[in-house]
Amino acid sequence: MTDRCWYFGCWNNAGHYLHLPGGKWDHRLEHYGNQPDRAHLDGTLAPRRHKRSGAICWSGQGKTSDERCRIEYDSEELPQGQFLRHVLNTGVTAISWWDRNQGDTRGACNSTILLEGDRTTEELLAALALHFPHVLENLKRARVELVEIFP
Does the pTM exceed 0.90? Predict the structure, then answer.
């Protein structure tokens, strides 16, 4: 697989960063992960459940910082391992989930795999297994299974 692939999250330590295969930091986050309206990749794509309606949502749905904050306030994180797939307007497809097994156990920890182009869930999971197997190993040790959910 020669496509460009990234992992955003903790790499066996606290702190969320964009990583290339092998672990090197990629400082081009603003191009590959962040949306032009400044919605940051960190936690905005991981699934949440609206407290009143029960609908699946994600804070990145908000068009402004205030809207994203309102979504976060009105919703709760879904269990670790449940993920959403997003085709971003930056030319990548992402799957994102809440994840406290990669070196940081605090709330709001999340992991995201990004793969260049409009990709299927299967392609993203294959890229995760190929390029970032330690992420899957950490999930397996914690008995967390990756499961796609749909809004």
Answer: no
